[in-house]
Amino acid sequence: MTRVFSGVKPTGNLTLGNYLGAMQRWAAVDQHQADALFCVVDLHALTVEHDPARVRRLSRQAASLLLATGLDPELCTVFVQSHVDEHARLSYLLECVATDGEMRRMIQYREKAVRERERGGSVRLSLLTYPVLMAADILVYGTDEVPVGDDQAQHVELARDLAVRFNRRYGYTFVVPRATHPTVATRVMNLQDPASKMGKSEDVGPGIVYLLDEPDVVRKKVLRAVTDSGREVVYDREARPGLANLLEILAACTGGNPSELSGVYESYGALKKDTAEAVVEVLRPVQERHKALCADPGYVEEVLRDGAERARAMARPTVDAAYQAIGLLAAAADIEVTAQG
Ligand code: TRP
Predict the structure, then answer these.
(1) Mean pLDDT over residues 64-76, rounded?
(2) Separation of 155 CA from ligand 1 center, angstroms?
(3) For a pocket test of ligand 1, which of 6, 14, 25, 41 has the largest count of ligand atoms closer than 8 A to its C-beta?
(4) Rounded distance between C-alpha atoms, residue 33 and residue 10, angstroms
(5) Domains, the chain, ranges and CATH?
């Protein structure tokens, strides 16, 4: 069975962009068709200035939201990265396979490092090595497919490169993974600035719809989305990015096709109204389930405990094999096991 792994970072409130760009498909497709793991990647939240209490709160919230999107612990494994030591252990080995030049070329590092420096802050070393930890997240489970938004394509590509290089140097150890992207609305843009992504790390903004926004807040944000000059509804990402964004959001929410939908609407107003309602309807069941889960924190904790246990059992043999292959001496207890088995 295909092994699937993906993760969400608890650094901000999750957005419609995260949902339509990736999460929706995890629950609807991946958990049914594959042996899937979904992880709250909390170690990644420490790569930029952070507040410990906030990271804890957002990690809990991200876990609840993963379940609220419809992930079923009977069908897939939901867990928190820091509960499984193997990620960090493998990350170090992969640092011994990656090069510093490779890290400095990563687009997301360059963008974030510039932003941190502009703010007068320093750049944490872990921000540079972030993609290696992400590669470890993926490779430690023998992952075949990584369903992510297309902004993560370069990082998954690095994971592939590191797997191939490690295998070539030290013998076959890792499955070589590949990224998969949803067909529409891979990249939901900011409603007030359709040139930039609807990310979750930015501050609260009127152009970002959060998964936990009240219906009226969602409506207001969508109705106030910037559109382009012109009056006809046409689907043209280059010339009419604001409009294209709305059409793509509507298409992703309703299972339609953006260019076909553009033919249905005569005015921007009607398109916005329908898009707003479509988003409200998509978020409604997620918000209802999230509310129920918040009322039952013991359940979420139990899911995470079981998830971590299952994940550890999958990760351990891969890390053992990698330690052996790269030349580390097996510890006495391991030798006994190896001698017997
Ligand atoms: N870097 C991803 C993001 O910013 C989060 C992530 C960390 C991830 N490790 C991963 C995604 C492994 C997929 C697989 O969204």
Answers:
(1) 97
(2) 8
(3) 41
(4) 26
(5) 3-181+297-340 (3.40.50.620), 189-294 (1.10.240.10)
